[in-house]
Amino acid sequence: MSDEEVFDAIAKAIKQIIPVDRVSYAEPAPELKGFRIFRFTGDAYLPTDIVLPKEKSGLGFIYELGQPYFFAQLGESDFIEHAMLMEAGLHCGWSVPVHVMGEITGILNAASSKRIKDGNQLLSILTTLAELMGSTFERIRLQDQAAAVLRDSEEQVRLFIDGSPLLLLALDSQGLIHHVSHFGASQLGYLVDHLIGSPFSILHPDDQTAEIQTYLQTLSNLEIGEIHSREAQMFQADGTLIWARQNARRVHDHRGIPQLLLACEDISKVRSLTDQLHFMAHHDALTALPNHTLFRHTLEALIAKTAVQPTPFAMLFIDLDGFKKVNDSLSHAIGNELLCQVAHRLQGAVTSSDTVARLGGDEFVVLLPQATSPDAAAKMAQTILQQLRTPFQVQNHDIFIGGSIGISLYPAQGKTSSELMKQADLAMYRAKAQGRNNYQFYSAQLSATLQRKLAIEHALRTAIEKDELHLVFQPQVGPEGQILGLEALVRWHHPTLGIVPPSTFIPIAEESHLIAALTDWVLDHSLAILAPLNSAYPHLYVAVNISAQEFLAPCTLAKRVRRAGTGLLAGSSYNASDAT
Question: What distance in Å separates the CA atoms of residue 431 and residue 427, rounded to the nearest whole number?
């Protein structure tokens, strides 16, 4: 693998995890007292042949600092490359030094056009990737050295072996060690005399004995000069297991007798970083639960396992009730801690064979491979609801929430991961419509109902935007029969849906967060109609029905009412009343 390929792989990983528009790697150019862009992805916001001076660049700042850094506002920086990036529409960026063999050999950079609030949290991901990049560069350098050893004459091999940081071994045809690099052995805690004459298998766990014999047989069948690579676990002298990359080559010694040369490199750090990246790519950063990607893989693997002989199982789709109110009224920090406690309770409610995942926001899913009947799925849903009803203690707050759960069953209600997740999602919305804090099974009738609901929601959004609604007015009469005011009532006649009654579209407006826009439309149009009547009927008022949801933010509602009345009714009466 080349340095360019390493960068391309790291840049791809960064773009999968972090919303960035550009990733670059810059290397110091001491002879020019600056930095050159080695490679980049994204648009060429900076000239590729430019040399950025060490003294006036962010790269020089990071090189001297020796630590990763998040630049929240590139426009507030005095560094020359930041000004160029800002002109190109990029707002923030990260820079992380890359170390190879203890020295900074370059700076890994990423920049985004978005305004990132949690940039310092994301910095840890960039740091991990930079460590992986540096470790891989270091491994490439060592492998190049090892390859040079394997190509050189035996005398040169012997001169190089003893000083190499790699554990370099020469094996005879029986797999016995007859030469060892002194420094490489000491790095793993071994004495050379302890290894000379010992079988190669002594460096490996006992349960790998048969595997080692097969490996040596494979190596003995190599063509002269052919190189074979693998990764395996090896012992250090103190018994600690490490991961090692073993590059082997079959050669002739000075007498023409075949022997094996092996270069063993400790890649434990690289494996650890790779494992960390794999975990981050497949788990939720907040709760450490499996994320959407890993859950879908798990679900698809279960479907594939039961494809030949379908075995029923269930999936639950959980949406927390009341979570948005917690986030808005208390804080996002408390909301995040609440989500972690929810994740812990969900894991405690299921068995070891079940999978709990967080899809994002306040949505969780549970896969129940052993739930072969609707009753088993319902029982688990009841258990989870009971767990969610118990109040949560978060930073001295007693928080009460609930959950709406949708259930889909395999294979009766879906034979693919997409179908099962969609059906469970539809059933969850049905649970919310039934008053929340309950569970519902998917049904074909439910799908048809929800499809109509979604169609109405889309059409209503368009009707509000394009003025396709109309008002009718109902007189409000005093005790002596005089007209005191008018009650504005919104009506909707859709060209294809026909007359949609308020009892249908107003609840949908409330559920889909369109109620505020609908209220504003009624206020604007009712007051516009009342304005011309003001001179003849100065005491006439208009009454507008307001959803109870609007009173959750009374200050905002009052401002919107005042805005609607300003300029339309000078001295006229308007009355926003009657919670629907």
Answer: 6
Partnered with residue 320 across adjacent β-strands are 403
d(CA 442, CA 409): 8
Alpha-carbon distance of 66 to 152, in angstroms, equals 38
Residue 488 pairs in a beta bridge with: 473, 544
- Nearest alpha carbon to residue 73 among 115, 106, 43: 115
Model confidence over 377-424: pLDDT tens digits?
A: 999 999 999 999 999 999 989 999 999 999 999 998 889 999 999 999
The string of DSSP letters for 300-320 reads HHHHHHTSSS---EEEEEEEE
- Ramachandran sector of residue 460 (left: φ over 0; alpha: ψ -120 to 50; beta: rest): alpha
Question: DSSP of 226-290, one letter per residue?
Answer: -EEEEEEEEE-TTS-EEEEEEEEEEEE-TTS-EEEEEEEEE-HHHHHHHHHHHHHHHB-TTT--B
Residue 536 has pLDDT above 80, yes or no: no
User: How far apart (Å, rounded) are the C-alpha atoms in residues 405 and 403?
Assistant: 6
* The token pair that represents 427 in the structure block: 């059933």
Maximum Cα–Cα distance for the chain, whole Å?
A: 126
Closest CA to 94 of 68, 130, 67: 68
Buried b (16+ CB within 10 A) or exposed e, 217-233: eebeebeeeeebeeebe
Give the residue-averaged pLDDT of 153-182. 74
Token duo for residue 423: 């059906």
For residue 124, how far is the Cα from the chain centroid? Answer: 14
Summarize pLDDT for 284-296 with one digit per residue, the tens. 989 999 999 999 9
Query: What pLDDT does residue 578 have?
Result: 44
Peptide linkage before 165 cis (omega within 30 of 0): no
CB 189 within 8 A of CB 241: no
> Alpha-carbon distance 104 to 26, whole Å?
11
Sheet strands side by side (includes 177-180): 177-180, 167-171, 258-266, 241-252, 227-235
Verdict on whether the full-model pTM lies above 0.85: no
What's the pLDDT score for residue 316?
A: 97
Contact 132, 273 (CB under 8 A): yes
Main-chain phi, psi angles of 441, to 5 degrees? -85, 150
Evaluated on CA atoms 153, 154, 158, 161, the torsion sign reads positive
The DSSP call for residue 322 is: S
